[in-house]
Design brief:
The protein has 187 residues and is α+β, with helices and mostly antiparallel strands. It folds into 2 domains: 104 residues, Topoisomerase I, Chain A, domain 4 (Orthogonal Bundle), CATH 1.10.132.20; 68 residues, Gyrase A, domain 2 (2-Layer Sandwich), CATH 3.30.1360. It is 59% helix and 15% strand. The protein contains 4 helices and 6 strands; from the N terminus they run H-E-E-E-E-H-E-E-H-H. The strands form 2 sheets. Strands 3-4-6-5 form a 4-stranded antiparallel beta sheet, with helices on one face. A two-stranded antiparallel ribbon has the order 1-2. Helix 1 packs parallel to helix 4. The N and C termini lie far apart (51 Å).
Length: 187
C-alpha cells in the first residue's frame, strides 16, 4: 500500500480514536448513582466577568458515595458557583451553608436509570455517526487518490481497511455503552 493511502488510514483511525475518547468523557459525566467530581466538568461560573470552569475557582471533592463538596477559594464566589450549578441543570440542587456548597445525589429511581441509559445510548449513537462520517471522508480521499493515479487494487484494500477500522471502533462504542448500562442499572 502506498504511503499516501497509509497516512489517510492512520489519520482516520486516529480521528476515530478521538471520537471514542469524546464518548468516554461524555459517559463519565452521566452519573451512575455515585458522586464524581467530573460531573461538574464543563460548568462555568462568571469569575469577575470571565466565564471560568468551576474547577479553576474552587476545590471539588467527594465526601462520600453520594455527596460532592465545592469549596471556593474566594468566599464571595459561593453564590456565583451556586447559580452556575443551578443553571447547568444537572439534576442536583446545591446546598450552600455559607462556607461550602454540598451537592447531595438522590438515589436513582428505576425510571431515572432508564432515562440515563437512553442518554448514554444517544451519546453512543452520536459517536457511531461520527465514526461512520470519518470512514466516509477517508473513502472519499482514497477515491480521490485513485483518480490521481493510485492503483485500483491498493485503493480497494485501503477501503476495506477503513471498513475494518470502522467496525473495530463501533464495537468499542458498544462495549462502552454496555459497561455504562450495567453501571447505571446496578442498584
Amino acid at each position: 500500500m502506498s504511503d499516501e493511502l497509509s497516512i489517510k488510514l492512520e489519520d482516520a483511525a486516529a480521528t476515530m480514536g478521538k471520537a471514542i475518547s469524546h464518548l468516554e468523557a461524555e459517559l463519565v459525566k452521566i452519573r451512575a448513582g455515585k458522586a464524581n467530581p467530573v460531573m461538574l466538568e464543563g460548568i462555568v461560573a462568571d469569575y469577575y466577568g470571565s466565564p471560568t470552569p468551576i474547577s479553576q475557582i474552587a476545590n471539588i471533592t467527594t465526601l462520600d458515595a453520594r455527596t460532592i463538596s465545592v469549596t471556593p477559594w474566594e468566599k464571595n464566589m459561593l453564590q456565583v458557583i451556586e447559580r452556575a450549578i443551578i443553571a447547568a441543570n444537572i439534576g442536583i440542587n446545591p446546598q450552600n451553608d455559607g462556607v461550602i456548597i454540598r451537592l447531595f445525589l438522590p438515589p436513582l429511581t428505576e425510571e431515572r436509570r432508564k432515562e440515563l441509559v437512553k442518554k448514554c445510548n444517544a451519546e453512543g449513537e452520536q459517536a457511531k455517526v461520527s465514526i461512520r462520517n470519518i470512514r466516509r471522508d477517508a473513502i472519499e480521499q482514497i477515491k480521490k487518490l485513485q483518480k490521481d493515479g493510485a492503483s485500483e487494487d491498493e485503493c480497494k484494500d485501503a477501503e476495506a481497511a477503513a471498513q475494518v477500522a470502522t467496525d473495530k471502533y463501533i464495537s468499542l462504542v458498544e462495549k462502552h455503552l454496555e459497561a455504562k448500562e450495567v453501571e447505571i442499572m446496578a442498584v
